[in-house]
Design brief:
Blueprint lengths: L7 E2 L9 E7 L4 E2 L1 H7 L31 E10 L20 E9 L1
Antiparallel strand pairs: 1-3, 2-5, 4-5
Length: about 110
Amino acid sequence: VGKSAKFNKVEFPAESGKVQTVDFDTSDFSVADWWLSERKVAPKLGHPQFDNVTSLDFQTGSESALGIHRFEVREITIRKAALTSAQTSTSALSQTCAPLFCLSISIVKK
């Protein structure tokens, strides 16, 4: 897929002026449509990957009105409950463990 980072995304409704706690599982994510189109990625490579996450980004959703949007992120918790396949290659756990991620965000849309 070239040298570009793959852009995984998840969209959720944010309520203006309210503190929200939002939990995501890896199954909630998809690869950004614009990235798939731009890269002309084969369908078998068009699934989210979490083995080399290098950044997090917050943007307005695809249905947001034009204008200024402000977000206050109070906490981000990322959990990974297994070792990567490289770390477990010599371990019996490599046969039974799979990466499990949980992203929990407390967010206020102002």
